[in-house]
Structures are given as structure tokens and as C-alpha cells.
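ok so heres the complex, two chains, lmk if somethin looks off
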Amino acid sequence: EKTAGFDPLRKVLADRLERDGVPMPKDEKERINSVTIVTGSQQALFTITNILIDPGDIVITPAPVYLGMLGPLGMHQANIITVPTDEHGIIPEFVEKAIGKAIEKFRRIPDFIYVISDADNPKGTTLPVKRRKQLYEIAVKYKILIVEDAAYRDIYFGGEKLPPIKSFDKNNEYVAYLRTTSKEAAVLRVGYCVLPRPIVDEFIKSKGYQDLCTSVISQVLLKEYYEKWIDKVLPKAVEEYKRRCKTMIESVNQYFPPGFHTKPQGGFFVWYESDKRGFNASSFLENVALKNNVNYVPGAAFYPVESLGYYYNPDNNEIERIKFPLNTMRLSYSLLPPEDISEGIKLLGKLLNEHLK
Amino acid sequence: EKTAGFDPLRKVLADRLERDGVPMPKDEKERINSVTIVTGSQQALFTITNILIDPGDIVITPAPVYLGMLGPLGMHQANIITVPTDEHGIIPEFVEKAIGKAIEKFRRIPDFIYVISDADNPKGTTLPVKRRKQLYEIAVKYKILIVEDAAYRDIYFGGEKLPPIKSFDKNNEYVAYLRTTSKEAAVLRVGYCVLPRPIVDEFIKSKGYQDLCTSVISQVLLKEYYEKWIDKVLPKAVEEYKRRCKTMIESVNQYFPPGFHTKPQGGFFVWYESDKRGFNASSFLENVALKNNVNYVPGAAFYPVESLGYYYNPDNNEIERIKFPLNTMRLSYSLLPPEDISEGIKLLGKLLNEHLK
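and the predicted structre for the whole thing:
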């Protein structure tokens, strides 16, 4: 029981999750047991992979995909099939086609679909309600788990929040819903999740083997914070992120060479793709940007390695060895105040324009 | 770098470890890098297993062995060869013979030898210096890692501490030395270890996949505690454990039926074996002890499951399927004050005497 978390915190989180659209049982004990505490949501990603993936098993992810998911998948030697995304995130039609092709090619049903619905890392995109519903229907149709990583759920400035994919999963069967406290209280390393009944016992057992339980002092602090303080403190922080995001988008529009960029409604990141397909953002970082004291993460970091990575190609409806463009970058607006963001983007834009002219 | 821990804490711990007999480099940066922070020493046990063990690989442990080691070993499907222990802990002569027989039987070199040198869990035994040296020599001779779990190192009341096995490992090659803060500061979930060079990078990578890093707030608190407070606070706690241990041993001598028990010099546990070989401590717990509000852990909990467990039998010098006596119990003196310990042991002794007469 201690492995699954500190009950008073689980209770507070269950109530909050229900207000946020996550189906919760009425019975108090069942509510508490619905929430599993983890040592950061990274532990949830690791543990789900650890209990579900044998070498050669299949996982579906967006292209590009959160780096923290790629580590555990690589360690467990999953075949990672990446699916195209656009300015609204992963495209459900291609997810379904990729599943069909994966079954043909690998003779295995994918074990799970990984997705960040709200303010994706790295792209900053938010899935529209229609796509959320479509993904849920695909999960039910093929009996495949969705791992809905809602790490940025609390950092949302796009108006009314959209219902999580988890909201459709009334009987707690198909969606593992992952949340974290790390975007407001990073030093505490506490995440929490609602896990479908078929996997929860195995998950807790594996977590126990890993670290017995999550820091109790962190959980006691967070119980106080989530019960009494978060709703007073968080809106100010979110307002500030919104300001920083706005500044970054305006600066990119003003100073960057022609290309596509996302317009986040939350989270920490803008994704930029240069119109010049031949542009290599990794070598530009090393040879130009860092030398001028500007930093970003090249998009190449968010794709699986060649030995495990695949790509669903909608042009020919085939699963191919991973390939991805090198002309992309993840720009972060979370750390610096607006003045520094506009200065940095201005400088980076100038360097890019010189380099690409 | 953050994954390996908070540098100021690593520095404080490196200095303490050196004073405690662990070889440390002179260079400050190297000293810091010698100490890896983990989310409880359970994470070290899991991670070492995770990076070294493939299904069917071999690990040598004492019989009985700490329960927290058995979980990760079982999950990774290690073959667990248990080796006889006496009132001083694991017997090196049999460790060496078991290694030889394991190589014959399984055609694999064991990946590591697991041992708790100081105040073992569950037996409460402390390895004499001679055995520590012998184990180190076996490790060097066969090039096998020793995982020296020093969880109870700080809870020692037997006079001058003995040098850790790690103290012989001058070049940091053969001994992974695991320490924890959990015996004094359980709520923080922080352990630390000195890992041999051949495994440290892989270890940190795996830890990163599991939880990115250990709670920073816990590490900051512990840095203060280990720098300024522990040496003022800990001696009083250790004195109290000594008093409780003494009470338990006296009470067992006075009230228990004939049998063997250990005489711990530290830690939390006394191990008792009834002279009646047919006594079943598990069913006695369920049917008698719990109904009378006395609790202990039956010794059977500290052996591997039949599918993975083996036993080195010195009588015929063979490795056999696991078998173990059921007439044993682990008695804990850590939680209750002396009055309650003597009352509990008196009651348990009375029940045992009635049951075994």
C-alpha cells in the first residue's frame, strides 16, 4: 500500500482529477486506490515499458516524440513506429493505418500508443477533441493501451481545457493517464497516474522493486500544496508562461527565416521547421549557435535510433526504417523572461538568415 | 550529471565515506563523481540487476537473503544460488565452491555476489574481517562483482567498526558499495553508492530512464544533515537501538524454547531458529502469534522462489534446487521501546513453549 503512495495525497489528487474530467469511482477507498504515486512521471514511463515490453514488441508514438519515452523503450528493445504529426499533433487516421501495417509486418499487436495530448513535448501542439475521441476509439477497437502523458496539463493558457482522452475511458480499461507535479514543484520528483485495472497491480509490484516507495516527505508537502495553494499560485505562473510564449512566437515571426512553427496553447516549447529542407539544425547548433551563446535542442533528438525506429509513411502506406528531417528545432520559452527570449530569438534569427542566405 | 546526484551532497558523502575506510581519489571532481545518488538503495539493487542480469544469469547470495534483493532478481529471472551462513554470516569457502559448481552446472560465470557485511538483514550477523578479505579475494580471482549492501553501517553498536569489503578495492574495480540514509531519514528516500568504473556509466543511464534524478529537495536537506547534524544525533539513536537489542536478546534467552539465535552488533534484527526442526514458523504466525497480537517475519520469506532458487549443499558439494528450514523467524527490535520488546518476547516465548511442548 505504501508503494502506491500516501493516501491523503492520493485522495486530494483523485478529487482534482475528477474535476478535470477523469472518471472516478464514488467510493472513497476506490478513489484513493485509483491514483498511483510515482517518483516523477518518468518512473511511470519506465514502469509501463518494463511490465509490457519484451524485445521486439511494438509501440506507436508521434514523430517527433518525447525523449524521456525513448530511453525506456530503447532499453527494452521495443520496435518504435513513429506516426506523422501536423500542427495539431498526431494524426489518428495514420495511427490506425500504422497499427494495421504493424500487425502485417511484425505479426504482433502494438502494446501501446504513446501521446501527449496537451502542449506536446517537443512540438507544443494540442490535440483537438475530435482526435482525442478518434484515438480512444482506435484503442477500444484494437484493444491497445493508450499512454496519455499529460505532463503539461497544468500549464495551459489556451482558454477552456479540452477533455483528456482518459475522460472517454469510463470503465478504466484503455488509457493510462500520467500527470506530474514537476512543472510546478520540480525539486520534489513526484508524479501520479490513473492506471487501467488490467495493469495496476503489476505496475505497483515493479515500482516496489525499483524504489519501494516515493519520498514520503515530498508527498506530505504536495498534499498541502495541492489542497491549499496550487490554485492560488499556478494561475500567475501560467500567465507568465503565456507572456513568454507570445513573445517567442512574435519574435520568431519577426526575425526567423521562412519556415513553419507551432503556436502552443500551453507547455514550454515552440517547434520550428525551416523551409530549407537541407538545413542541418544539429551542426548549426554546434558550429554557429552555441558559439554565439544561443541554445536550442535540434529536432533530431526526438526520434528513435535507427536500429529500433520505424516510420509510417502515408505516401505509400508502408512502415519504413526511421527517417526524419534535420531542419527542425525545439525552442524553449520556459526559463527566461520575455526580454531575454526576444533578444535570443533575434540573434538566432540573424545567424540563421546569414547561414541560409 | 544531475542524474548522478546533487554535487554538494556527493562531496559531503565522499568525505564521510573516506573516513569510513572507502578508498577515494584525491582530486575533488573525481571524488564527487565517485559517489552516485539513488532513490533509496532499493534503486541501486534494481539498477545493478537491470544492467547486469539477463534471464538465466547467476547471482550468489547468502541463505537467507534480504527480501528487497529477491524482487529485482526474480523480475529479471536470475538463477539465485544461496550459500550457507553461520552466526558470522556467509561462509567464503562455500561461496568459492558454489562459484565453481555454478560454472560447471550453468556454463556461466556468476554476475555478482550479494552480501550485507554489517548487521545483516535478516540474520543480524556481521562478517569478520577475515571473511571480508576472503570474499574480496574471491571476487578478484574470478573477476566477479561484489554488491556490498551496507544499509546498516550507521546503526552499529559493536565497538570499532570493521573495514568494509570495499576498503580492499583500492582501484574501484570489484565492489559496488551501497549505503542509504533511510535508517535515519527514511522519509527522504535517498541512497548513495560507490560503483566500480566498469558499470558506473551504464548504471547512471539506467537510473535516468527510471526517474531522471533523485528528489533535489531531499538531497539539499541531507547535505545539511550529513554535514552538520548526523554526528550529533546518530550516536543517541544507536545507543537506543543497542538497548533494545540487548533487551531482546535477554528476553529470548529467558523466555524462548531451546534454539539458536544471533547476537547482533548492529542493525534491527535478531534471527531465531527453533531446535525443533519440524516447527513451522509461518503457520504458527498465522494461527497463533497474530491472534495474540505478536508479530514477526517467518524466515521462509527470505529465500528465493522454487523456480529460480538454488542451494549450495556443502555436504555433497552440489548445487541443488532451493530448500530451507521452516523453523526460523526474524525478530525486529527497531520499532518498540524495551518494555514492549520484553513483553512481546515473553508472550511469544510462552506461546511457543505451549505449542512445542
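quick notes: The longest strand of chain B covers residues 79-86. thats all i got rn
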